[in-house]
Design goal:
The complex is a heterotrimer of chains A (about 300), B (about 300) and C (about 325).
Chain A (H helix, E strand, L loop, with lengths): L29 H15 L1 H4 L37 H37 L1 H16 L2 H12 L3 H27 L3 H8 L4 H38 L10 H12 L5 H28 L7
Helix pairs in contact in A: 1-3, 1-10, 3-4, 3-6, 3-8, 4-6, 5-6, 6-8, 7-8, 8-9, 8-10, 9-10
Chain B lengths: L1 H28 L3 H5 L6 H11 L5 H13 L13 H36 L4 H15 L2 H15 L11 H31 L2 H8 L4 H31 L1 H7 L4 H10 L3 H29 L8
Chain C lengths: L6 E11 L6 E12 L4 E5 L6 H9 L6 E10 L2 E2 L5 H7 L4 E4 L3 H4 L6 H13 L3 H14 L5 H5 L8 H13 L5 E5 L7 H18 L2 E6 L2 H7 L2 E6 L2 E7 H6 L4 H8 L39 H5 L5 E2 L5 E2 L3 H7 L9
Parallel strand pairs in C: 3-8, 3-9, 6-7, 7-8
Antiparallel strand pairs in C: 1-2, 1-4, 4-5, 9-10, 10-12, 11-12
Helix pairs in contact in C: 4-5, 4-7, 5-7, 7-8
The chains are: A mainly alpha (about 300), B mainly alpha (about 300), C alpha/beta (about 325).
């Protein structure tokens, strides 16, 4: 009969010399953060890093495979697309698009959403009702559908996309922040501020805001992945970042043409980039969430 | 009970109203709605006719009234490209989307729920980690890319499955997988956390104290309770699937409403775009209502809630 | 005291270990006590004293972070600590049963009362559905629930708190156990219902020859219901003995303070007597006696060395240096046993 699981002999507890990692979620996600940093650097130094011009190609060099396949050359390391443009260069500049759109959209959505969430949660009353009804309705529509709708109206351009993504995703921030503000509102330090005669705006900005920043940041990191996928989807459908700008989603759309004839590099490489970026953002976001705010577990 | 239902119906109507308002607002607010509502390449006379028809020179609230009046009569405009009423187009394509969404939903539940239960029972061990990986990938990979890679592998290289169109079950496999993976991940995660929540509750403790075999504790006592939030999510997700299937349908040329939306964007067929979005949103709101009511019927505790 | 005690704990210790092994919470520390068949034992202590963990340890239903580190649990002569999971499952519910504090939370909201009461009978006795259902009806009658037939088909949320607790009691005695452990069974009940429920438990005990263990912070219940008493503080057993002895002549300063803190109607002074200070962090127990910081009779020795349990005669024990000398003297009859 083996020793039952809950009976062991414990040595007297030692001071902790080495920290045994409690699973991969417990420790800082080094690799994902590194990947994101690399992508960011690539985005910043795209002009220096890219071997060719991403927007102009040579028709003589169309549909060249990556250098390790037959027909490929070292000039175009990862092959070329239907207009003879270098895939590697387009990937590099695409990083810039993804980073810029992703981060700006998240910041924009975050700023608007957090502000409205604070206002809604703190002021209450009809302001709260109005904002919440709008939020609920917009949340009812899937982000993608809403984003496509807006894109169809305003037309494609990079900054339009940022704006659209911001409009689509601010509701998620507002929801979460409002929830936090509702409980913060009852806390001592807020009451003290009211008694001390602070105006509503002072309270909201100086007392409440710093306390919700935590959740907003965690939410932002979680949203980054979602936003990038949505941007890629919009570009793929043709309502995102317009050609000839290189966006990974757009590259995938172009790559569709060559798919049936086996030009796999036009599909696999851009997709891998998206996957790497989103995966890293998600892992980092997960870690932040566990680390900083267990209440956000539901997200 | 009646009070509960009437309340929920009230919310539903309010949401529908706000939805229509939102759509209406965005179309009007961009400066020149005529540009959207008119066929590309229309003459000045056509433009004038559109102005007349939609009352674009009249005050906003009148326009809204006209808009709602048309909606109430099921008139969502006419597709420029197909020259048929939008509502007809929508209804003809809906069954295909329902089919795809149902297949994807079955896939997501069959994979998601058991793996979620397994992960919760084997926390920290192999199945939990495997499940987490599956979920992570499902949530990080764009569904259309999954679709494209599947086509590459199964249609181009292996030549096992058809890459486009609908018609045979073989046509359904890849799109359903591509669409369903994300949701399988979501369902797995929720099942896992729901099970963990339930496993920590007092009645589970008591079930163990009764000396019940662990398998019975999990399968009977824990599972049924843990399933409640998952089913709710699944219900809502079904409708969401229909709407976000736009990319998967585009990749696989599946003739559903997602593809209709794509056509609308590509051909600048705005009535179609507006119609799909409006109906999609309305569908979600109504299904939410149905789920709420169904809930109240099944779980008697809910009826007395606010 | 005839023959073997029904239950005997010998130096039982349960610790909670954090994932990295760095933080150890000594929830139950070297507890020894014994209980005879048909007797009632009260285990008393503040929250965090380890009394609930002790109960769960006895049935080996501990959370994954907990470990039984040492000691034995001798039930009808068998050591439960050495038993496998399968063997424990046969004991739980059948030979030892337990009632939890919150009856609403203890019952599964999605299954009928009949289903939940019949369940242990079906699992342990292998009874058929109809037999178990009939037995469940009898059990509901035994716990004085009116119109048991209708109640069998109803759901937990349709019952009042008092009824739910009775149902939990019915589940407890369903397979005729020898020992029933009740963890704060009346804490969630209204005052008026508490007395009824306690009477019910006493009747059931008499009818079925049950031994009862009451886990509570309420000394009033102990006075009314229990024969024996064990006082816990910071995971350790600080005093034990018969209820009449301990109440009349408490040996440990903590027990004295507990008894003093009960407000009496005759007490004219305005202030309630509380025990100053807080219980210690169970992960960082002091070197000496755990109560030293709050003890009004503390001596230097108390801070350096943790006292062992000293016998005081007639089954009374106290874990206090003050009792060291008392035990050596023949004890004058302070009250009839």
């Amino acid at each position: 009969m083996s020793t039952p699981a809950d009976v062991i002999s414990l040595p007297t507890p030692q001071p902790v010399a080495t920290r045994r990692r409690a699973g991969w979620l417990g420790s800082f996600p080094v690799v994902p953060t590194l990947i994101l940093l690399i992508i960011a650097l690539v985005a910043v130094f795209a002009d220096q890093l890219a071997p060719h011009n991403p927007e102009i190609g040579s028709l003589a060099a169309r549909f060249k495979p990556p250098f390790w396949q037959a027909g490929g050359t070292a000039t175009y390391l990862l092959g070329t697309d239907q207009l003879g443009r270098d895939v590697l260069s387009r990937l590099i500049f695409g990083a810039r698009v993804s980073m810029v759109v992703g981060i700006t959209a998240v910041l924009f959505a975050g700023a608007v959403g957090t502000l409205l969430g604070i206002v809604s949660g703190y002021l209450g009353g009809w302001v709260d009702q109005v904002i919440m009804r709008i939020t609920d309705t917009w949340l009812a529509l899937p982000a993608l559908t809403f984003a496509i709708f807006l894109a169809a109206i305003v037309g494609p351009s990079m900054w339009n996309i940022v704006f659209i993504l911001g409009l689509t995703y601010w509701t998620r921030y507002a929801r979460v922040v409002r929830g936090e503000v509702l409980s913060l509102r009852e806390r001592e330090f807020v009451r003290l501020a009211i008694v001390a005669g602070c105006s509503k705006w002072t309270i909201m900005l100086r007392h409440i805001l710093p306390n919700v920043v935590n959740s907003a940041v965690v939410l932002a990191s979680l949203m980054l992945g979602v936003v990038i996928i949505t941007e890629a989807t919009l570009s793929f459908l043709g309502v995102g970042v317009p050609p000839p700008q290189p966006a990974w989603g757009l590259m995938l759309s172009d790559g569709k043409q060559g798919l049936m004839v086996g030009y796999w590099w036009l599909t696999v490489f851009p997709g891998c980039c998206i996957m790497l970026m989103v995966l890293s953002a998600n892992l980092l976001g997960d870690w932040l969430r566990v680390k900083f705010d267990p209440q956000l577990r539901q997200l | 009970m009646a009070q509960f239902i009437s309340r929920r119906v009230g919310y539903c109507l309010l949401s529908l109203l706000l939805l229509s308002l939102t759509i209406f607002f965005f179309v009007r607010v961009t400066g020149d709605p005529a540009a959207l509502l008119v066929e590309p390449g229309a003459s000045a006379a056509d433009i004038a006719a559109i102005h007349e028809r939609f009352g674009l020179d009249r005050p906003l609230w009148e326009q809204y009234g006209l808009f709602m009046w048309a909606l109430a009569h099921g008139d969502l405009g006419q597709s420029f490209y197909y020259q048929t009423p939008v509502i007809e187009l929508y209804l003809s394509r809906l069954p295909y989307s329902l089919l795809l969404a149902s297949a994807a939903m079955v896939f997501s539940l069959v994979i998601g729920i058991p793996s979620g239960v397994l992960a919760s029972v084997r926390v920290g061990r192999f199945w939990d980690s495997a499940g987490k990986l599956f979920a992570l990938l499902g949530l990080s990979l764009p569904s259309f890319w999954v679709g494209l890679v599947l086509i590459l592998v199964f249609s181009v290289y292996l030549r096992w499955l058809p890459s486009s169109g609908a018609g045979t079950p073989a046509h359904l496999i890849m799109p359903a997988f591509a669409l369903g993976w994300y949701f399988a991940a979501a369902h797995m995660r929720l099942t896992r956390s729901s099970m963990l929540d339930v496993l920590g509750s007092e009645y589970i403790k008591l079930a163990r104290l009764k000396g019940l075999p662990e398998a019975l504790v999990i399968a009977k006592h824990a599972f049924k309770n843990a399933l409640i939030p998952v089913i709710t999510l699944a219900g809502i997700n079904l409708v969401i699937m229909i709407n976000v299937a736009v990319v998967v349908e585009t990749v696989f040329a599946w003739p559903g409403i997602g593809r209709l939306l794509y056509e609308g964007i590509t051909f600048r067929d705005f009535p179609v775009v507006q119609g799909v979005v409006l109906l999609g949103g309305a569908m979600i709101i109504v299904v939410n209502l149905a789920i709420d009511i169904l809930y109240a019927v099944i779980d008697p505790r809910i009826r007395f809630e606010r | 005291m005839v023959g073997e005690p029904l239950l005997r704990l010998e130096n039982l210790s349960t610790h909670y270990v954090s994932a990295q092994g760095s933080r150890v919470v000594r929830a139950v520390d070297e507890v020894s006590l014994s209980l005879n068949a048909g007797e009632t034992l009260g285990i008393v202590g503040e929250s965090g004293s380890g009394k609930s963990t002790l109960a769960l340890t006895m049935l080996r239903v501990l959370p994954p972070a907990a470990r039984i580190v040492s000691g034995r649990i001798l039930f009808e002569g068998e050591d439960l600590v050495a038993k496998s999971d399968a063997e424990m499952r046969e004991i739980r519910g059948k030979r030892i049963a337990m009632i939890l504090q919150d009856p609403m939370a203890s019952l599964n909201p999605l299954f009928s009362i009949g289903n939940q009461v019949a369940e242990p009978i079906r699992v342990h006795d292998g009874a058929s559905r109809s037999t178990a259902w009939a037995k469940a009806r009898d059990l509901l009658k035994a716990v004085r629930i009116p119109s048991p037939e209708t109640r069998l088909g109803q759901y937990p949320h349709e019952m009042s708190g008092g009824m739910r607790q009775r149902i939990v009691g019915a589940i407890g005695i369903a397979c005729e156990p020898r020992l029933l452990i009740a963890d704060e069974p009346t804490t969630s009940l209204d005052l008026t219902i508490q007395a009824q429920y306690l009477n019910l438990l006493r009747e059931l005990q008499r009818e079925h020859g049950l031994a009862l263990i009451f886990i509570t912070h309420n000394l009033g219940i102990v006075a009314k219901m229990c024969d024996q008493l064990a006082v816990m503080y910071a995971g350790r057993l600080v005093e034990s003995g018969s209820v009449s002895r301990v109440f009349n002549a408490p040996a440990h300063p903590y027990t004295k303070a507990l008894l003093n803190s009960i407000p009496r109607m005759s007490d004219r002074s305005q202030r309630l007597t509380a025990i100053a200070g807080q219980p210690p962090d169970l992960a960082k127990l002091p070197r000496g006696c755990a109560f030293a910081q709050r003890c009004p009779q503390v001596a230097d020795r108390c801070r350096d060395e943790a006292p062992p349990a000293f016998p005081l005669g007639n089954g009374q024990l106290a874990r206090c240096w003050l009792s060291q000398d008392i035990g050596r003297q023949p004890r004058a009859a302070a009250g009839a046993d």
